[in-house]
Write a structure and sequence with these properties.
Helix content: 25-40%
Shape: elongated
Radius of gyration: 20 Å
Number of helices: 4
Oligomer: single chain
Number of strands: 5
Length: 153
C-alpha cells in the first residue's frame, strides 16, 4: 500500500470520529442559547433576547412575545447594571418531538436609581423552567413557554 492510500484510509477512518467529537449536541446548543440570552439581558439587548424566543410564545401568566418585548423595554429603561446569574442548569431533550425542557436557579440583580437590589431571587434563587422547541427554516431552538420564578427555600 502506498503512503497516499494509507493517508486516505486514515483520513476516512478518523474524520467521522473528529466530526462526532466536535459537532455540538442539542443539549450544548440549548446551553449556548441560555448563555447568549443571559448575556443579551445584561447588555440590555432586546433584539438579542427576543431572538431566543418563539413568535408563538405563551405562558401561564398570559404573556406573549410582543408583551414580553414591551416589558423588557420598560425594565431596561428602569434598571441598569443588570446581572443575570444562573446556576444548576439542567437540560432534557426529547429528540422524537424536537422539544426540550430546561431548568435553572436564577438571580437577577440590577440598579434602580441609586439602589442595587434583587429583581428576581433574593435570599434564595428563583427556579425558572423553560420549554423549548426546535423549528423555523434553520431548525433552531427557541423558548416557547416559561414558568417559575418560584422561590426555593
Amino acid at each position: 500500500m502506498s503512503k497516499k492510500s494509507i493517508a486516505l484510509l486514515a483520513l476516512l477512518i478518523i474524520s467521522p470520529v473528529i466530526i462526532y467529537l466536535i459537532w455540538p449536541t442539542e443539549e450544548s446548543r440549548i446551553r449556548r442559547l441560555v448563555r447568549q440570552g443571559a448575556t443579551a439581558i445584561e447588555k440590555e439587548d432586546i433584539d438579542g433576547v427576543m431572538s431566543k424566543m418563539a413568535y408563538n410564545y405563551s405562558d401561564e401568566y398570559g404573556l406573549s412575545y410582543l408583551i414580553i418585548k414591551k416589558q423588557l423595554e420598560r425594565k431596561f429603561n428602569a434598571y441598569s447594571d443588570i446581572e443575570f446569574d444562573y446556576e444548576n442548569l439542567t437540560v432534557e431533550v426529547l429528540k422524537e418531538t424536537e422539544e426540550a425542557a430546561a431548568a435553572m436557579d436564577l438571580r437577577v440583580i440590577a440598579m434602580s436609581g441609586e439602589q442595587m437590589g434583587y429583581v428576581i431571587g433574593g435570599e434564595g434563587p428563583a427556579l425558572l423552567k423553560l420549554r423549548l422547541k426546535k423549528g423555523g427554516p434553520l431548525k433552531k431552538w427557541h423558548v416557547v413557554e416559561s414558568s417559575g420564578f418560584i422561590e426555593r427555600h
